[in-house]
Amino acid sequence: MNLGPWIAIFAVVLAGGATALQAPTNAKLAVAVSGPVNAAFVSFAVGTAALGILAAILHARPDMVAVKGLPPYAWIGGLYGAVFVVAAAWAVPRLGVATTITLMVAGQLLISLVLDHFGALGVPRAPISLTRLAGVALVIGGVVLVRRG
């Protein structure tokens, strides 16, 4: 039995749980450090330190030939993370954790459908289908239920 996919599923579910924990943690931090942008800065500083330590432990060395060949968009992933962290830190006190995270997942799914459909940013093409749209509609319906609940 190939455990690779199961390990990946577990890791992604664990990361999703970490995201749910990150939102209220950074919202609390935002109160103490005068806003969600400052909270995101502190959060990224701590994350950068942790990643630096992990990279040192793993002796991770970049392939400089591959680095030089990267397209420009490959360098801005951290900006997306910054938007995510600031938005979550700002939204949690206003919407709650469940609504904030559910809305973020809905946004992720909508953009994911577009990226997959066009094969944008180097991802494999997967055309939008009624089944995929129905899946996203169910998540958006979940947003409505969570918000009303």
UniProtKB/TrEMBL annotation:
Matches recorded under Pfam families: DMT_YdcZ
Record keywords, A-Z: Membrane, Transmembrane, Transmembrane helix
Domain of life: Bacteria
Protein's name according to its UniProt entry: EamA-like transporter family protein
PANTHER family xref list: INNER MEMBRANE PROTEIN YDCZ (PTHR34821:SF2)
Species per Swiss-Prot/TrEMBL record: Brevundimonas subvibrioides
UniProt GO cellular component terms: plasma membrane
Lineage, highest ranks first: Bacteria, Pseudomonadati, Pseudomonadota, Alphaproteobacteria, Caulobacterales
Transmembrane segments: 38-60, 72-91, 97-115, 127-146
